[in-house]
Each structure stands twice: as C-alpha cells, then as structure tokens.
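Good morning,

Attaching, inline, the backbone tokens for the sequence recovery test we're adding to the shared suite. The designed sequence is right after.
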C-alpha cells in the first residue's frame, strides 16, 4: 500500500506484484514492487519499486483489493504476458481458474483453492492423519500438501484446474520433476476430498505407513 501511495493519484499495483497480491504467482521476497503510473506523472524512480509508465489505463482495468488500487486479475495476466516467460503466464492463468477469478471474460464457478485446501485439512483431522505442511516449495515446485519424511505430496485439484492441454502438460511436467527428487505425487479431486473422504483417507494412511 505504501508503494502505491508514494506515487499518488493514478498509481496502481500491477504486473508481478499484482499477480502476487491476487495469489496468481507466489510472493518473491525482496523483489521490486511493480507500480503503474500515468505517463505524465513526472515521478522519479524509488528504491525497491519497478515503475511502469503508461499513456493510459482503462478504468475498467483497475479495481481495489484489500483497499489497494490494483489492476484486475484479467489485466494483471495481460501485463504478465508482456514481461514474464510463458510458463509463468500459464501458471497465473491456471491459478486464476482455481481461485475463481475472472479472466478473458470467463467467470469460474468451481470451488476455490482455499476452500478445497480447508476441506482436505479437515479430512486429515477427522481421520487422524498426520497434518502435512501446506503450500511450500519442493524442488522448485509450489505444492499443496507435503509430508517430507514420507516423501509424499498431495495436490488438490478442482475441475477447472485440469481443463485444457496446457494445464494437462504442466501438471505432468511438475509431477515428473517431483518424482525425480524422490516424491510420490497424489492428485485428488474435489469429489474425492468432499464426497469420498473415508476412502481417500484410507489410501493416504496406507501411503504414509508405507
């Protein structure tokens, strides 16, 4: 918020910083904060801020998130496509689908990532499974749930998380990378977590015991 306020009226959080704020990409501690300002603002660069001067920013491309002026999820992904490698743009688009954020005029009504994570942790508690670490980096991959000592990772994926060829290929590439580092990867759907909790817990208990 302070970085946006420093540049006054018309300044908004954008690009990678906006993607992190929307949870489309992980935070990068120590990375510069991306701020977009009107082209004629006359503001100077500040330490720790990456300034993007643009002739105009459509009011429809700006909103507020946690009271901070920020580019909308759709415009954030558009900005990312101009500065980030394709793999990060795909990851941001996929995460937007998981979170139910509007991208390219689509409104995703699937269960959100946070809701599915909550249901899975509830399953672990109800069936007395060891509680995993949540949302950590393993071998350069951001994973949902991890039991490091057992070398087991669980990814909880909603329906929209799987849609499209790009998502399918990204998932397989992630799984191969994790397996190359000695981790077994289990992917669970919303239905398996919410509607088949006992069966799912039984399978996980066997994997953790093994």
């Amino acid at each position: 918020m302070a970085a946006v306020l420093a540049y006054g009226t018309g300044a908004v959080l954008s690009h990678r910083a906006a993607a992190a704020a929307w949870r489309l990409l992980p935070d990068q501690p120590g990375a510069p904060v991306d701020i977009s300002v009107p082209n004629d603002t006359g503001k100077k660069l500040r330490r720790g801020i990456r300034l993007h001067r643009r002739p105009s920013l459509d009011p429809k491309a700006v909103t507020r998130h946690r009271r901070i002026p920020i580019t909308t999820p759709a415009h954030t992904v558009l900005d990312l496509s101009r500065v980030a490698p394709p793999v990060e743009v795909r990851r941001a688009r996929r995460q937007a689908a998981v979170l139910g954020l509007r991208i390219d005029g689509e409104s995703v009504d699937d269960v959100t990532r946070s809701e599915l994570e909550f249901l899975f942790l509830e399953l672990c508690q109800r069936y007395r499974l060891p509680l995993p670490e949540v949302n950590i980096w393993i071998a350069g991959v951001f994973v949902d749930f991890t039991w490091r000592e057992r070398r087991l990772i669980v990814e909880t994926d909603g329906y929209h998380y799987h849609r499209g060829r790009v998502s399918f290929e990204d998932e397989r590439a992630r799984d191969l990378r994790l397996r190359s580092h000695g981790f077994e990867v289990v992917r669970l759907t919303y239905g398996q977590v919410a509607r088949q909790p006992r069966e799912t817990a039984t399978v996980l208990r066997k994997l953790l015991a093994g």
